[in-house]
Amino acid sequence: MAKDGLSTDPYKGVRDFYPQDQFVQRFLFEAMARACESFGYEEYAASILEPADLYRAKGAANEEIANEQTYTFTDRGDRLVTLRPEMTPTAARMVAAKRRELAFPLRWYSIPNVFRYERPQKGRLREHWQLNADLFGVAGIEAEAEAIALAHRVMLELGASEHDFEIRVNDRALIEAGLAEAGVGPEEAHAAMALLDKRAKLADFDEKLAVLLGSDRASALAGYFERVTSTTRLEQLQELLLAQGVRTMVIDTAITRGFDYYTGIVFEVFDADPSNARSLFGGGRYDRLLELFGEDPIPAVGFGMGDVTARDFLESHELLPSYVPATELSLCVLDPEAMTHAIQLASALRSQDVTVAINYSCKKPADQLKAADKLGIPFAIFVGAREVESGQYSIRQLATGRETILPANRIADHLFSSAG
Fold first, then answer.
1. Are 298 and 286 in contact, with CB atoms under 8 Å apart?
2. DSSP per residue over 304-318, as a string?
3. pLDDT digits (tens, 9 = 90+) for 24-79
4. Whose CA is closest to 156, among 37, 246, 243?
5. Which of 7, 14, 261, 405 is the most buried (most CB within 10 A)?
6. Number of other CB atoms surrounding residue 181 within 10 Å
7. Could you give the CA distance from residue 8 to residue 348 in angstroms, rounded to a whole number?
């Protein structure tokens, strides 16, 4: 609590977006949307509320997220409800609901906010926005190639160069074959897969794996990964990506992806800067998720890209866009008698696509200019008795102090040419 009232702090792990922050957020979303739509993907959306069962069903999601990180509550109708922790199960539910009405292959994207109750840290918050792009109905390796090429395109749209990131790819079939060769049964394989997903983060990974599987089987698995470094599908995938000009793919058998629904190729996009050598986002193939809804499988490939890691990446690579306010012009009213005229002028300018904010304060000219400058508005016009009588207006460019006197019908063209 604040001394004299409620705290001004947001809920832990979420963010307030002031105009400068929202400007960057919009930049991210627009870049993501441009990339997706250039590949023929259509935007969809859904509520943040889902039945809790959607994430608790076997194979639906990562068990740690479903059991420990969801915001789940009982509503007034005694229904168990969850704030979505991710979007893929929702997309699968929507496809299953209308699969006979939909045309395949189906290309969808969305940029929803998602919620996870976890310890806030760099790159992870309790609420974030996430691009989800999914391709349904393509069983061949072309689907994985398209998803990775799209992820690559998103990075370029954000301003990154190919030297700034790499796309590390693995085939879960390779991991499953290694577990089978090491004699790891289905139940142990599930736990081993979850542990393998964390191996880059665990200094004592080898010890934990030996405890889980026993030293002989852990050693056999390690030997398998040293011996088998690729699959035919991975080689085919790399060829398809090279044909599209995507040269950032690296085969990495350490990539696992922790979600239970993945069934084949998985990938993660990594920051190539050694000082921030971390995963930014990832995805993969999930052919069996629709079975949760009693439907026949539909082949599917997709990925999710969070706004928090994307923003961190842009900041570390000095790619954040400079803030430009939406307002182009401040009308500074000098006296109450000129107010109606100023409002009419603003309306006329808006009809010509000029974004105008009126300062109704009638304060001193210097104070009104100072306010406009603080807001980042590039141009200002004073409106007083002289302007009302003459029909001529002095347009000041705040950055330079340059003034130009023009009639109302030439103001819009002047602003557009000066901005260009």
1. no
2. EEEHHHHHHHHHHTT
3. 999 999 999 999 999 999 999 999 999 999 998 865 656 777 788 999 999 999 99
4. 246
5. 261
6. 15
7. 39
For residue 92, give the H/E element and its range: helix 88-97
Q: How far is CA 97 from each of CA 59, 79, 102, 291, rounded to the nearest angstrom?
A: 19, 21, 10, 12
Residues 419 and 395: beta-carbon distance below 8 Å: no
List Cα–Cα distances, 117 to 12, 85, 227, 329, 336, in angstroms. 10, 9, 39, 43, 53
Q: Are 263 and 286 in contact (CB under 8 A)?
A: yes
Written as six digits, the tokens of 316 are 């570390």
Q: Give yes or no for a contact between 61 and 127, defined as CB atoms under 8 angstroms apart.
A: no
Distances (CA, A) of 124 to 48, 127, 316: 19, 8, 16
**The two three-digit tokens of residue 9, written as one number:** 């702090």
Q: Which element (helix H / strand E) includes 38?
A: helix 19-38
Expressed in angstroms, the distance from the first to the final Cα of the chain is 48
Return the amino acid letter for 132.
N
- Whether 82 and 116 have beta carbons less than 8 Å apart is answered as no
Query: In the structure encoding, which two tokens stand for residue 10, read together?
Result: 């947001």
* Per-residue pLDDT tens over the stretch 102-159: 999 999 999 999 999 999 998 899 999 999 999 999 999 999 999 999 999 999 999 9
In DSSP terms, which residues pair with 132 in a beta bridge?
110, 304
Of the candidates 408, 288, 400, the one whose C-alpha atom is nearest the C-alpha of residue 348 is: 408
